[in-house]
Prior knowledge:
Elements: H1 4-11, H2 19-30, E1 35-51, E2 54-72, E3 75-81, H3 86-98, H4 123-126, H5 129-146, E4 150-168, E5 171-190, E6 193-203, H6 213-232, H7 253-262
Antiparallel strand pairs: 1-2, 1-4, 2-3, 4-5, 5-6
Helix pairs in contact: 2-3, 5-6
Amino acid sequence: MSDNLNLDQIFFAQNNVNINNVYEIVNSALSNSDGGELFLEFCQSESLVFDDNILKHMDLNTRRGFGLRSFCEDSTSFVCSSEISEKEISNAASIVKSSVSLNKTNSISLNKETENLYSKINPINEIDLSSKIKLLNEVNEYVRSKNNCVKQVKITLSGEWQVVQIIKGDHRLSDIRPLVRFNVLVIVEKDGRTERGSAGHGGRDSYSKFISEKKWKEVANQALEQALVNLEAVPTPAGEMTVVLGPGWPGVFGLTQKKWRES
C-alpha cells in the first residue's frame, strides 16, 4: 500500500478537486445505506511489438475514473464516470442517494495498518523509449544469430501502472499496482517445415527485474529451444496396434479389482 498523500496530486490536485469536499459528498451519499465506497482509479499502460526486424506497433494509453457504490439490504446502486471532478462525484452521489430509502446512520472505518506489496516505481517512466527499442533490437539480433533456421522473431514488451484509492467514511486506502510482461516468439524453418516456440515472464514489479541481459537471454533461449525441438518432432504412434494379453482378465483391471474385493 502507498501513502495516500503521495497520490493526491494524481487524483485531486490535477483535477482541481478538494479532498475534504469529496469526504462530505461521499458521507452524505452513504449516510442512509448499509455501506459503500468511492473507488478512484488512474492507469497508464504501454505495449511495444518488434516484428520482422522493425518496431511494428507501439501503444500508450492513460485512463482514469471513479465508481461510487452504495448498498442497502439486498439492493445495490452503482454509478461510474471517466471524469474525476467534484461535479461528477456530486452527480453520482445524488443518484446513489436517491436509490436508498432507509434512514440509517453508519460509521465505517478502514484499517490503516497496511503493507507495501509491490514496487512504487512506474515502469512506463522507468526506462526511456529509445532504450526499450534498443533492447528489443538486441533480443532480435541475438535470437537470429543463434541458429540459421530462425525465420522470424517477435518480441513484445508491455507495462502497466495502476493506482487505486478507496474512500470510505473519513478514511481512505491506496494501492499502487505495477505490471510488466516480456515475451519472445520464434519461428524456425527447415526443409519446408515451419515450427514455432514461445516463452515469457513478468509480474507486478519494475522492468529492471525482468529485462536484464541475463533474464531476457534466458527467455530468448527458451523460446528458440522450444521451436527447434518442435522442428525435430515426429508424429506419435497412433491407430490400431497388436496387443498381446496374458492369462486372467488383462485389460479389464477394474473388473479384476472388483472380483478381488468381493472374494
